[in-house]
């Protein structure tokens, strides 16, 4: 059973603060990791991808990956009210002998940034 | 650059009926995956199509079937609808089957079964 767990929300932070979102996964063969943002009533939007251990920064977003601990996180610096959404962690796992993978999602963490 | 498109946007059906949802992948993408997202949950993988064949399937009954056309567009069919099939149905496409495997979602089809 491949599982992706996210820290239970909701998470509420003031404008300008750092929001920290966490995710753990159970399958050690996972190779690619993604964060999606989903506004209420909308579809998921890919905001970050990370494949190697360490940090990856893109604007106000930083993804962190630790494969040994099976842990991936997303930091949002200088949080804005427009960041209020549900953040989904997704893990890509490729079947043995296949070039095709599939995504496993966590349940999401709801983030609210208040002015 | 056209993104992933889906139709219809919303659909209301009665229990026992059949429904067909449609998806056109992002330009340059050839692999399409379908997901079901219930309220408050993360998307659940239904199946994936590549080269007009179903390549992988999640834990969904045979009532869920699909098809991929030569132009890479895809359909999801659900027969004998149940109340529990009410959900947001998402189509995602990718053209990169190597390490990154980034998938991009369409706007979704909201299906309500009454």
The largest inter-chain interface, given as chain pair and residues per side, is: A-B, 28 and 29 residues
Order of helices and strands of chain A: EEEEEEEEEEE
Radius of gyration of chain A: 14 Å
Biggest sheet of chain B, open or closed, and with what strands and sense?
7 strands, mixed
Average pLDDT score of chain A: 92
Average predicted confidence as pLDDT of chain B: 94
The number of helices of chain B is: 0
Biggest β-sheet of chain A: count, sense, barrel? 6 strands, mixed
Low-confidence stretches of chain A: none
Shape of chain A: globular
The chain-level structural class of chain B is mainly beta
Give the strand content of chain A.
over 45%
Name the structural class of chain A: mainly beta
Q: How would the global form of chain B be characterised? A: globular
N→C terminal distance of chain A = 41 Å
Q: How is the quaternary structure best described?
A: heterodimer
Instruction: Give the terminus-to-terminus CA distance of chain B.
Output: 37 Å
The amount of beta strand of chain B, in percent, is: over 45%
Report Rg of chain B. Answer: 13 Å
Structure description:
The complex is a heterodimer of chains A (115) and B (114). Chain A is mainly beta. Chain A is built from no helices and eleven strands. In chain A, strand 6 and strand 7 form a beta hairpin. Chain A starts with a strand and ends with a strand. By secondary structure, chain B is an all-beta fold. Chain B is built from no helices and eleven strands. In chain B, a hairpin with a 6-residue loop joins strand 4 and strand 5.
